[in-house]
Amino acid sequence: MKDYRAEILSDEQIAQGVYELVLRLPGEVKVRAGQFASVGVRGHLLRRPFAICKAEGERISLCFQVRGEGTRNLASMGAGESLQVLMPLGNGFFVERDEKRVALVGGGVGIFPMIAALREYAPAKEVFAYIGFRNKEAVCGLEEFERAARLKAVTDDGSYGEKKNAVQAFEEDLRAGIRPDVVLSCGPLPMLRALKEVLEREKLPGFASLEERMGCGIGACLVCVCDLTDGQHARVCKDGPVFPIGDVVL
Predict the structure, then answer these.
(1) pLDDT tens digit string along 198-243?
(2) What is the DSSP secondary-structure string of the chain?
(3) Cα atoms found within 13 Å of the Cα of residue 190, Cβ hemisphere only
(4) 67: buried, middle or exposed (CB in 10 Å: 19+, 13-18, 0-12)?
(5) How many angstroms separate the CA atoms of 20 and 45, rounded?
(6) In this structure, are residues 167 and 194 in contact, taking their beta carbons and an 8 Å threshold?
(7) Order of strands across the sheet that contains 126-133
(8) Peptide bond before 113: cis, by omega within 30 degrees of 0?
(9) Rounded to an integer, what distance in angstroms lies between the CA atom of residue 148 and that of residue 131?
(10) Nearest-CA neighbor of 74 among 145, 144, 20?
(11) Global confidence as pTM
(12) How many CB atoms lie within 10 A of CB 19?
């Protein structure tokens, strides 16, 4: 973990209200899929946490949705400007050597950690991707998911692909006998709850990257505490954001 002064190479809209921020760091940084960066935003004391979507040498890509003043400010920045970026933070995904088939289930902005996972595990693993969006205006990142062995992109309203969510698309393949060894996921809580039920029923191991509001991003402020199924608590930023899906209360 280090606090970098990063140069903005580009900051472009890639879907309705969604931006990809490409930064150049002073040097190469090793990043695991599922780790995140905490980005300083002008005019705001607290930084904003974003999943690291791509890491290529000195370049990293962070994708985010505009939801408030901080992200609006971030979306208005341009090439040549600079930001403070604390990274890499948190614990990422981990796939065992003998787990040859990996399913990725992502919804909304939760697809971005899935891009990082796909880049890390394919083609050494056979990766199946199930990604869901609100509507066709929200669809993005498909060029990255084309490297998956199997891809299902769906929308809630059926305006792109089939009318279903990512978990339903995943379940459909399970019923057809397409069964992974492990499942990696990120998305809104209702999606993760539904996925957890499916995995428990099918006795499949899975991991979830949780989306939580954060203050410090390093485990000191306790803003992002979540409940565990054993009655304990965990800090999403420090102990996560990736957890075995059966270990967290969703």
Answers:
(1) 999 999 999 999 987 777 888 888 889 999 999 999 999 999 999 9
(2) -EEEEEEEEEEEEEETTEEEEEEE-SS-----TT-EEEE--TT-SS-EEEEEEEEETTEEEEEEE--SHHHHHHHT--TT-EEEEEEEESB-----TT--EEEEEEEGGGHHHHHHHHHHHTTTSEEEEEEEESSGGG---HHHHTTSSEEEEEETTSSSSSBS-HHHHHHHHHHTT---SEEEEES-HHHHHHHHHHHHHHT--EEEE-----SSSSSSS-TTEEEBTTS-EEEHHHH-BEEEGGGB--
(3) 5
(4) exposed
(5) 22
(6) yes
(7) 150-155, 126-133, 101-107, 182-186, 206-209, 242-244
(8) no
(9) 12
(10) 20
(11) 0.95
(12) 21
pLDDT band at 69 (very low <50, low <70, confident <90, very high): very high
Angstrom distance (rounded) from CA 56 to CA 17: 25
Among residues 243, 110, 93, the alpha carbon closest in space to that of 166 is found at 110
Asked whether the bond before 180 is cis by omega within 30 degrees of 0, the reply is: no
Do the beta carbons of residue 1 and residue 218 sit within 8 Å? yes
